[in-house]
Design a protein that fits this description.
By secondary structure, this protein is mainly alpha-helical. It has helices at residues 5-17, 21-25, 80-91, 96-110, 116-130, 134-147, 152-164, 168-181, 186-198, 202-215, 220-234, and strands at 27-31, 35-40, 44-49, 55-59. The protein contains 11 helices and 4 strands. It is flat. The termini are far apart.
């Protein structure tokens, strides 16, 4: 049995006026003008005259569900490839300015332990050393080495303090340990060359300087040391 058009419109209007609570929540109430329209599926827009002041809920399109927020990306850790690239560029540096900039960038990477405590102790140790408080600096470096035994930076720093205090054997042990952890520590190799030259181990000093210059060939003091020791150890070319 088919409903008369007037009865059909009345039923559709009732469905719109008395919609379920959930459907109302998705709509927005808006005032009607003298002539209002109702969209009826299968029929289209139908004018529905309503008395002034009457209100009806007009369904609105639900917003698309928001994608779940992604957690902020953590800063990437320093990749080994980044250090490799910097060292490669250092070996090919074309000027002292470029060499200095690359060496400093590499040094900043080496100075990061990944431990906030160790980094803080390192800063305090360096501050103590800068004002001549070598005993305090040594004590701090001892703590850092215990805390981060695989961090070459702490061993190189302690070696420098031991050199200042005259403990050459202890300094050499620390430099050797640092180079076992990071064979490309050109600063440790340069310091080891100077230490060995100081104690008269010229051949071993020459070896250390050559290894340092293979990584940082533009370091002027190492170039002069290599030339000096080469003459002493290997003599003049015939």
């Amino acid at each position: 049995m088919r409903l008369a058009p007037s009865r059909f419109f009345a039923a559709a209007l009732a469905a719109a006026l008395f919609a379920a609570p959930g459907a109302l929540a998705a709509g927005a109430e808006r005032p009607l003008t003298e002539q209002q329209y109702l969209d009826i599926p299968g029929i289209g827009r139908v004018p529905i005259p309503l008395p002034p002041g009457a209100r009806v809920f007009s369904p609105q399109r639900r917003p698309a569900p928001l994608e779940p927020e992604r957690p902020p990306e953590r800063p990437p850790e320093i990749a080994r490839d980044s250090l490799d690239d910097l060292i490669r560029r250092l070996t090919l540096a074309e000027s002292e300015v470029e060499e200095s900039a690359l060496a400093q960038a590499i040094g900043r990477l080496w100075a990061r332990s990944g431990s906030p405590t160790a980094d803080l102790l390192l800063r305090r140790a360096m501050s103590a050393a800068s004002v001549g408080a070598d005993s305090l600096a040594l004590d701090l470096f001892d703590r850092i080495v215990i805390l981060e035994p695989a961090w070459a930076e702490a061993l190189v720093g302690r070696a420098n303090i031991r050199l200042a205090l005259g403990d050459l054997d202890g300094a050499e042990r620390d430099l050797d340990s640092a180079l076992r952890l990071e064979p490309r520590r050109f600063d440790a190799l340069g310091a080891l060359g100077a230490l060995r030259e100081r104690v008269g181990a010229s051949a071993r000093a020459l070896e250390a300087y050559r290894r340092a210059r293979a990584l940082d060939p533009r370091r002027e003091e190492w170039r002069k040391a290599e030339e000096r020791l080469k003459l002493e150890v290997e003599g003049r070319d015939i």
